[in-house]
Write a structure and sequence with these properties.
Shape: globular
Bound molecules: adenosine-5'-triphosphate, magnesium ion
Strand content: 25-35%
CATH superfamily of one domain: P-loop containing nucleotide triphosphate hydrolases
Low-confidence stretches: 259-267
Oligomer: single chain
CATH class of one domain: Alpha Beta
Order of helices and strands: EEEHEHEHHHHEHEHEEHH
Largest sheet: 6 strands, mixed
Helix content: 25-40%
Radius of gyration: 19 Å
Number of strands: 9
Structural class: alpha/beta
Strand order of the largest sheet: 5-6-7-3-8-9
CATH architecture of one domain: 3-Layer(aba) Sandwich
């Protein structure tokens, strides 16, 4: 199987001022991370709060420039790309984060938010409107509701709209950073099923970050475990769950509230 995402030796150091400004604090939030994600697969990324998952996500997408190491997504290495190619990289790899409220501009209609990337790409108005209607329907929002504003939607619907906006760029890779953590449990399942359907329909590849290990176990093909900026364990999801090699991984999974269904036919 081909890899879509290759991350090699990636590090990210945060330079933050400490409480006393004289003592500048540096945090090696991501430390020498090497990972590959196969085309059309889901890698689950788990680890304690503060282990560096979100920092890794942003560094992989070059939203924050890595301190060291390299990234290649769909054959594109952002460190060496021209401006035009960088645009393509920004389209191919998208991120969806936890809070769909903060992600949408409250003053714009959701259709305008979904259309933003298309407008930037110079897609003519007619085609844009057609595409936005199609994207909204694809995520389960009736196209006629495009003229409504974010506050007229529930949290789950807003997350659907954020997903539609990401899909507008025709991505091949999505980083989902706690995409359902802010939602009610009943809604979480609907969004997860939507994400699985979209992955199937559009041949997408996901890096799925979550505190919910049950969810990660359910959704992932492979799992990577992060601790203090480093990947301490990675492998086939069923293997990592059934035979965790590290005490840290065992601890994470043992502290998860429900039992896992490790049956490979679980989906
Ligand atoms: N912009 C920043 N400046 C300085 N330090 C930061 C910054 N962002 C994150 N950190 C630090 O980097 C480390 C990793 O943080 P990060 O948010 O990546 O963890 P995380 O695994 O995503 O945590 P959570 O599960 O709570 O979302 C933490 O020690 C955090 O305090
Ligand atoms: Mg985070």
């Amino acid at each position: 199987m081909d890899d879509l995402v290759c991350i090699e030796g990636l590090s990210k150091v945060h330079y933050g001022a400490g409480l006393l400004k004289r003592r500048a604090r540096t945090v090696r939030a991501v430390d020498d991370v090497t990972l590959t994600i196969g085309c059309n697969t889901i890698m689950g990324l788990v680890g304690e709060s503060g282990s560096g998952k979100s920092t890794l996500a942003r560094a992989v997408l070059y939203l924050d420039r890595p301190s060291a190491g390299s990234v290649e997504i769909d054959g594109l290495n952002p460190a060496v790309l021209s401006r035009a190619q960088m645009k393509l990289f920004r389209q191919r790899a998208q991120i969806v984060v936890q809070d769909p409220h903060a992600a949408l501009n409250p003053r714009r209609s959701v259709a305008a938010s979904v259309a933003e990337g298309l407008r930037n790409r110079g897609v003519p108005r007619c085609a844009r409107e057609r595409r936005v209607a199609e994207l909204l329907e694809m995520v389960g929002i009736p196209a006629r509701r495009g003229r409504d504003h974010p506050e007229q939607f529930s949290g789950g619907q807003r997350q659907r709209i954020v997903i539609a906006r990401a899909l507008a760029m025709d991505p091949r890779f999505l980083i989902l950073d706690e995409p359902v953590s802010s939602l009610d449990v009943s809604i979480q399942a609907q969004i997860i099923n939507l994400l699985l359907d979209l992955k199937h329909q559009l041949a997408l590849t996901y890096l799925f970050i979550s505190h919910d290990l049950n969810l990660v176990a359910y959704i992932s093909d492979s799992i990577a475990v992060m601790k203090q900026g480093r990947i301490v364990e990675q492998g086939d999801a069923a293997d990592v769950i059934a035979h965790p090699q590290q005490a840290y991984t065992q601890m994470l999974f043992q502290s998860a509230p429900r039992l896992f269904d490790t049956d490979p036919g679980r989906r």
